[in-house]
Amino acid sequence: MAVTWTRAWWRWTGGPTTRPVERVVRVDGRSRADEPDDERQAFGRWVRKRPRVDGGKRRGDGCGRRSLSPTWVLAVGGPQSAGRGGRVGGVGRDASRLAGLQRRLQGIAGGLAVYDEAPDNVSSSTYSSTPSLPGCRVAPGRRADAGLPLARVTSNRIDVEALAAMDGVGRFREVLPMLVDPVAFAGLVDGAAGGCRVPSRGMERHRDAMRSCGVASDAHVRPVFAMKAFTTPKKDGRTSRLVLDARPLNDAMYGPPSMDLPNIRDFINEVKRHRFAMQCDGVSYFYQFPIHASISRYFGIGMKGCDMLLHVLCMGWSWAPCIAQRASNVLVRDLGLAWVDNFLVLGGSLDEAQRNVAVFRERTQAARVEVRAEGGGALWEVCSRFVCVGVEFDLAAETQRHRLDPSWAERWVDGSGMTAVLSGRATARQFAEVFGGAVWATDILAIPRCHFAALLSFAGRLGGRMVGAAAHSWDEVIDVPPSTRRELGALRKTVQGNPWVVGGTAEDSGSVLWTDASSWAWAALLEAEGRLVDGRQGVFAGPDAGAHINLKEMWALAEGVVRLCWAPGAQRCRVDNAAVVGAVAKGSSSSYAANRLLSRTIRAADRRKIVLCPGWVPSGEQQADPYTRGASLPRFPAPLSASR
């Protein structure tokens, strides 16, 4: 596919006037010179549109909105693609109008991605790759399949009032009104919303099944929202689960608070602090949470003939995972961990684990929560080796260890999606599924994602393309660049080996690295035993002089690690830039350039058996700050006061 690197100004009369430019900045902040040849073929050119000044109404907000800043659009396709649509009106920031525009421009391969800054102002840390597919309106999951029967679900209902009485922290009581208080629920919903009716296709055959288990009943009053329901296949391939497309309700009400789901790395580290565990999961967990009859009117299912009303929590409502997770946290408080409907009761010894299991069992009985054994074992059985939330734990080893669930790793490595992506021709849906598995694998195996900068960059740009895209766009074939395939192939080889990850804390190196950067200079100091023992400083020249300040701060840290740090162990790093601290802590950045730089830094540290431990400090306490503003380095060793 040919690509024209030009910039066009769309006139009100329609046709574009093109002119060559010296430098065009892409979505991830790179210039054409920085772009690998194979990736230039995947995306198109910049097109600038006039600002929207008509003050037109946005769908759902009920008020006029002006967009006075120009909008930049990345047009994907051949050199003539940008002109196929004739006159392109002011899209501005109106997502609904953008979606309509995309449907009209079917000749453009891949669609449009909108950003609110001119390319010349795009920095490497603003619009760039992310470890997810952002802004996607259509989830890249399995296709709906109404032909499979619904899986059998429990008719048990949790006593939510008793569960709230056990809540010693109060986090579940905060969301309880969304189940039992119609006034509180209505207060979070836009009063002008409602009245929509979206019919469900192929759901008539499941009406009796939903009635029999009490999940839903025929609506004898008009639902406030009658939304589309569909089914998706379960892992067994023989049954399906019910999902409600609750986007009309989600868009009309306030978003949920924090879900209180633990970070997967924190989850793993906490499990590995113990020797024994018991695991189980909730039976049809969402369906065990009853909804007040008056609140059920907001959860209508558009059906042929007679609509239905849901009486339990449903997948698809934005508040449902938050409610379920907070309820689970109540059940395992001071006993273990919960991952939505997966419960893990822990103990440092066998006796402690059995005591905790007895307490957990009493809580589930008091709240009437139905659970079952996970993985085919016996319920309430305590063990030391098990698989939980896709992770295999071995707590009986001399040093507790973990790795990916072997069955999951095998499916991901040998799946049809992986084969298609590595061949270079895959659908967007296949790439999204493979990329999601890559994110999960790097988290579990403790691999910094910055080592896969091209993969992250391509995924971020693909996510931008899919903003507002139609459902069929997920099944269109895309070209995967060779650099992305190479990185994914390297990760696939690692996952195929599925190595054990051993816990442990590195001993402190005994030194502190201070790094800082200004708009034109950088400095790094090494502190040991309360004194400054070494340091480096320099200035930014050439292309580096115009880099974003976050990238300059990352450069200063990289120079400090490579030039000053030699002692193995945990190396404390003090930086006054929160973005850099966060990137080093999680092992990845939203910037392609920062990921490449961070990857080289971590590899250098690994060769010296150094573990980077970043920490943020205020600029007033940054020891390296004066040496980025013109001061010369002192003669080493020097007291800390020499830097002030």
| Global geometry | globular
The helix/strand class is alpha+beta
Arithmetic mean of pLDDT = 79
Strand content: 15-25%
Number of strands: 26
Can you describe what's shown?
By secondary structure, the protein is α+β, with helices and mostly antiparallel strands. The protein contains 19 helices and 26 strands. A hairpin with a 3-residue loop joins β21 (508-517) and β22 (521-528). α12 (406-414) runs antiparallel to α16 (482-497), α13 crosses α14 (428-444) and α15 runs antiparallel to α19 (592-607). The longest helix is centred in the middle third of the chain and has 18 residues, at 350-367. Residues 1-144 have low confidence and may be disordered.
Task: Compose a concise summary of this entry.
The protein has 644 residues and is of the alpha+beta class. It has 19 helices and 26 strands. Helix content is 30%, strand content 20%.
